[in-house]
């Protein structure tokens, strides 16, 4: 697994560092505020108080050897920019910067950042999708205008095969997988449920009540997909 450095331990940085560590990643958490570093010290691999605009300090903590560095500094844009520049100069393979505006996103990209994220905007877009299309349980943007979504199978689909439904022809959407809840009895005779995936559905695959369809298509086509 990749080794990460999370620089700037605001709400976003602390949460990200903690989640990466929980997933088993090796994480260096960095901030110039000692109290914030002390707060996260027991939840990451290494927590360090230093000035991220100091290349020698970064190198001394092995930041030059990480695979991915995330610059999450939110209140001092000048420091965030300089930190990103230093990380690229140190040879970090992938530098991701948090931006709070489109202008700042453009600046980060121009100085060599590999990716720019705007957590607030992305969270707002996810909630927009959930509020406007409640049937969409989860959405991943694959490219501009194209998404992968998880949708509860409409009731009218239950009992029919994919061949009968002709989803690709009628809606210009591809069904790439189906998630299904299966009931079973464990070795102690206790009823249980488990999630199973039909990763390669065919024309003969029949939709059951409670199925979740994984669909890929243009956002406009997905928005027009039936929800009941």
Automatic annotation (TrEMBL):
One GO molecular function term of this record is:
monoatomic cation transmembrane transporter activity
Query: RCK C-terminal domain: from which residue to which, for each copy?
Result: 134-228
Q: Which PROSITE patterns match?
A: RCK_C
InterPro entries (alphabetical): NAD(P)-bd_dom_sf, RCK_C, RCK_C_sf, RCK_N, Trk_Ktr_HKT_K-transport
Q: Which GO biological-process labels does this protein carry? A: potassium ion transport
- One Pfam family named in its UniProt record: TrkA_N
Provide the transmembrane region boundaries.
none
- What name appears for this protein in its UniProt entry? RCK C-terminal domain-containing protein
């Amino acid at each position: 697994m990749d080794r990460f450095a999370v620089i700037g331990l605001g709400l976003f940085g602390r949460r990200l560092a903690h989640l990466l560590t929980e997933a088993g990643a090796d994480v260096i958490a960095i901030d110039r505020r000692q109290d914030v570093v002390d707060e996260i010290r027991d939840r990451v691999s290494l927590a360090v108080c230093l000035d991220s605009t100091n290349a020698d300090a970064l190198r001394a903590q092995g930041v030059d050897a990480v695979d991915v560095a995330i610059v999450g500094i939110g209140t001092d844009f000048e420091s965030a920019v300089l930190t990103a520049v230093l990380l690229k100069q140190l040879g970090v393979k992938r530098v991701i910067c948090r931006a709070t505006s489109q202008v700042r996103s453009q600046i980060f990209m121009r100085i060599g950042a590999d990716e720019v994220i705007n957590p607030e905007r992305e969270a707002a877009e996810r909630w927009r999708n959930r509020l406007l299309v409640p049937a969409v349980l989860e959405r991943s943007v694959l490219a501009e205008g194209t998404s992968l979504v998880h949708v509860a199978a409409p009731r009218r689909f239950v009992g029919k095969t994919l061949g009968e439904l002709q989803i690709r022809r009628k809606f210009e959407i591809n069904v790439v997988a189906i998630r299904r809840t299966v009931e079973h009895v464990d070795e102690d005779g206790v009823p249980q449920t488990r999630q199973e995936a039909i990763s390669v559905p065919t024309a003969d695959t029949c939709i059951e009540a409670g199925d979740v369809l994984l669909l890929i298509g243009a956002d406009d086509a997905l928005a027009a997909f039936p929800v009941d």
